[in-house]
Specification:
The complex is a heterodimer of chains A (about 325) and B (about 80). Chain A is mainly alpha-helical and about 325 residues long. Chain A is built from 7 helices and 6 strands; from the N terminus they run H-E-E-H-H-H-E-E-E-E-H-H-H. The longest helix of chain A is centred in the last third of the chain and has 46 residues. The N and C termini of chain A lie far apart (about 55 Å).
Chain lengths: ~325, ~80
């Protein structure tokens, strides 16, 4: 019989409060500077790394290092879970226990929506959810979007030498041609349109694949529907038009998946940047808490919508339920 | 002078683009209202309603986010 541990947050919340109070002194040492906001991810190295032929040049943009860290975190979690499974504990503890709880909740959710096809859908659902979740929670790490290389810029900020080769930006505008802006090493992955578009394409394409796997070629009668055309001409024609609308809505899905995640995370980034320069103490903590909440919600929504669309694809076109 | 007019037009355009968030706000409000009434009448359906409500909110919220993306495009890209 294991003893229940005491609730540790009772102590840790005072540490959080202390950090918030310390930020009052921190803004006197290094005042926050409004970052240069750019929709496309910034290039760390100006020259392209290599050429991809017809696709154009490959640049080292600052979302790539973040993506590598996200991958490393997920791999580390996977190894931790494997270690715990090797030991053969019936009750996994720590990370393994948390992951078991998460996976169990997700699997039950999939099973209640998809029934017997849950095993096929679940890997896509859980993979997308965990990847987006870790990627969105990365932005609360210190140093994200704040540490990087300086660049000359026309409307930049003046800089101050800290020690050695390290500089800090000062608020205010420098004289023309003298200013610098910061290109951070790490920028949240979800604020890169390429990442969200790739996930959306994977999600929608695999929805079609799962539809074909479960229903065979009959799946495509959802889009080009001639089945009822000859039995009842008028409603058959209506069914055909509805099928065309379904076809369009598949493309709309890609668009909405892409811009939902990108829009929420990018607007969160802009919100944090603006609020930090306007009210540097107390308020950014609350905004950060809200951003963590939005990140979790968006990860859940992205995975959940994938799961719902896939489970809709496994079901037939309503016709066979009647007879 | 011309640059100033273009800049002003960008800001006005970004502001106008966000009017679209009105519809999304109404939509989210309606879906939460429906879900809360359902929960009040049948508390057992709480979990089921909650997930479906969040899905519906995500759908209507997407409309507001399209507006936000357009506003961002006007402010930071064009």
């Amino acid at each position: 019989m294991e003893t229940t541990r005491k609730w540790r947050w009772g102590k840790n919340r005072w540490i959080v409060l202390l950090l918030i109070i310390l930020s009052v002194f921190a803004i006197n040492i290094a005042a926050p500077v409004q970052p240069h906001i750019q929709v496309a991810p910034e290039k760390i190295i100006e020259e392209p790394l290599f050429n991809l032929g017809p696709l154009g040049d490959f640049y080292l943009v600052n979302t790539l290092p973040t993506l590598i860290i996200v991958d490393l975190i997920i791999i580390a979690i996977a190894f931790a879970v494997r270690q715990s499974l090797r030991k053969g504990d019936l009750v996994p503890r720590g990370i393994a226990g948390a992951m078991e709880g998460l996976i169990e909740v997700l699997y039950n959710l999939t099973e209640s929506a998809a029934g017997k096809h849950a095993r096929r859908i679940f890997p896509w659902f859980a993979t997308i959810l965990i990847l987006v979740l870790v990627a969105n929670l990365m932005k609360v790490l210190p140093g994200m979007e704040t540490v990087g290389v300086m660049h000359h810029y026309d409307h930049g900020h003046p800089i101050q030498n800290l020690f050695g080769n390290f500089y800090t930006l000062l608020p205010g505008e420098a004289e023309h041609g003298d200013g610098y802006i910061l290109t951070p090493f790490f920028r949240a992955v979800s604020t890169d349109l390429n990442f969200t578009l790739a996930l959306a394409l994977i999600s929608v394409f695999m929805t079609q694949v799962i539809g074909v796997q479960t229903q065979g070629l009959r799946y495509f009668t959802k889009f080009i529907n001639f089945t009822t055309m000859f039995k009842k001409p008028f409603f058959g024609f209506m069914d055909f038009l509805v099928g065309l609308l379904e076809l369009i809505s598949e493309f709309a899905k890609i668009l909405s998946f892409t811009f939902r995640l990108f829009g929420v995370m990018f607007s969160g980034f802009v919100l944090v940047a603006l609020v930090i320069t306007l009210v540097p103490i107390f308020v950014p903590s609350m905004i950060y808490m809200f951003e963590v909440f939005m990140g979790v919600i968006q990860a859940f929504v992205f995975g959940m919508l994938t799961m719902v669309f896939m489970s809709m694809a496994t079901r037939g076109h309503g016709e066979e339920e009647h007879h | 002078m011309e640059g100033d007019i273009v800049l002003a037009a960008k800001f006005i355009g970004a502001g106008l683009a966000m009017i679209g968030a009105l519809g999304a706000g109404i939509g989210i409000g309606l879906s939460v209202q429906g879900a809360l009434q359902g929960m009040a009448r049948n508390p057992d359906a709480y979990g089921n309603l909650l997930t479906n409500m969040i899905l519906g909110i995500a759908f209507s919220e997407a409309i507001a986010i399209y507006c936000l993306v357009i506003a961002f495009l006007m402010l930071f890209v064009l």
